[in-house]
Design brief:
Layout lengths: L17 E4 L6 E5 L3 H21 L3 H4 L2 H8 E5 L6 H7 L5 H15 L16 H6 L7 H7 L7 E6 L5 H15 L5 E5 L2 H17 L12 E5 L11 H8 L13 H15 L6 E6 L7 H10 E10 L17 E3 L7 H11 L13 H6 L2 E6 L2 E6 L3 H4 L19 H16 L18 H11 L1
Parallel strand pairs: 2-3, 4-8, 4-9, 5-6, 5-7, 7-8
Antiparallel strand pairs: 1-2, 10-11
Helix pairs in contact: 11-12, 16-17
GO molecular function, one term: helicase activity
Keywords: ATP-binding, Helicase, Hydrolase, Nucleotide-binding
Protein name: DNA helicase
Amino acid sequence: MVDTPSLDRKYEYEFDDVVVVLSPGYKICFINLGDEESFDDFCDDFCEDLGVISDNFEYKEKIGRPKKWRKEVSVEVDYSEVTSIDELMRNNKVDDLNEKRKIELIISLVTGSINDVKKIDIEEKDNLLDIVKNKIMLFDVDQTNFIYDKSKDPVIRMQGLSGTGKTELLLHKLKEVYLSSDESRILFTCHNKILAKNLRERIPSFFDFMQVKKQIHWQKRLWCIHGWGGKGDINSGTYRYLCDFYNYDYETFYRGIDVSGVYFRLAEHIKKNHPDLYAFDYSFLDESQDFPESFIGLLNVSTRESVYISGDIFQSIFDEPEESDITPKYTLNKCYRTDPRTLMLAHSMGMGLFEKKRLQWLSDESWKACGYQVKHDNSKVTLKREPIRRFSDGFDISYSSVLLKDITGHYSNIYKTVLASIQEIKDENAYFGDCERLFRFIPNTWTSTFSLSLFLL
C-alpha cells in the first residue's frame, strides 16, 4: 500500500486520506478515505505523475498513456464500499496475461523497481526459458523497506543469500542518499580490488539508467574503493584514506598481519583524538562477511549518519555456523536468480546433506533465515521453500527443474549423455549462458567433458 510514487521524493500530495493498493495480478485500487472532490484530484495527479515517470523510463510504448491504462487496469472505490480486503481483491482480480504484465510495469514505476523495458514484451513468450527471462522484476516488501527506510540508526544491516539482490539494493539506497544532499560525502567499499573496480564501473551505468541528473564527483562526494589500499595513493582504499584523514600512521599489509587489530587500533585512535570529526556522512559496505567486525566498528566511528551493510548468510559451507548476537534489520531470503528447487539441490549438494557425513547443518532459525520452512517428524526433518513468482507465475510449475541422469558403462557414455542433454536444451531455443552442468568427479574424464560442453555451447 502506498500514497505516493516512491521513486522520486518530489511527488507529494496535499490529500492524505487515500490508500493505493498495488498487487501483481490485481487492478490498481485507489481507496478514498475522505471527501470525493479531493480524492478525484489526487487520482488525477497520481496518474499524471506516473505518466511523467513513464516517459522518463520509456514505459509509454508498453503501457500506453495514463488515460488509457487508468480505465483498463485501475479502479476507484470509497472506503464505505469495502467490506473486506479479501472481497476487494477478489472483485478486482485480473485474468488477462497482457493486462497483468501492464499492471506489473505500473507497480514497478510506483515502487522504483525499474526494468529495462527494451528487453521486455507485454505479450507472454511461448517457451519456458523466454518466459522466465521476460518476467518483470518487482521489489518485495523487505527490499522496498530497505531502500526507503528513513531511520537514523548508526548501523543498518542487511543479510541474505546470493541472488537476493543485495548489491542492487545498496545501489538504489546509494542513489537515494546521493540525491538527498549536495554536500554529503559517501563511501562505498568492499573487500577486494576486483569487486571495487566492478562497482566503480557499475555505479555510473546505474545512475544513468535511473535517470539521476546529478553528476558523480569522484573522490569529492563519492569514494568507491576496496578495504585496505596502498601507501602511495590515499584514495586507493578505505583504511588508507582514513589513516590520512585522521593523521594516523598507515600500516603496510603483509601476509599474517592482524587485520582486525589494525582496524581496531585506528578506530580507538579516532574515538580518543577525533570524536566529533567524520570522514564520511554515509558509508556502504558490500560483502561484509569478508571483513572482521572491527572494520564495521571503524566505519561506524568515521561516519556521521548511517552505515549500510550487506552480507551473505552462507560464509563458508565447510565451517559450522557461529551463533551471533548481531541481528540484521533486514533478512532477504527470497532468491530471484534461481528456481527454488534448483537452489535446494545446490544447498543440499554443497552442504553434503545427501552424504553419510554431512559438511554442515543449520539451526532452525538459520534455515528460516535462508528462506526454508522446517518441519520436524521425530528423527526426520523436512525442508521446504515457497515458490517464487518469477519461476511459477504464468506457466506450469510441475516441470522438472532438475534432471538426474545415471551414466554407466564405458566412459565415452559421459560425452554422449552430455552432448544429448545440451542438444535438448538448444532445441528449446536456449542461448549461450542459459545452461549449467553439475558433474560428479570422475578421474581423467571430468575436465575434458566440461571443456567440450563449454565449447559446444
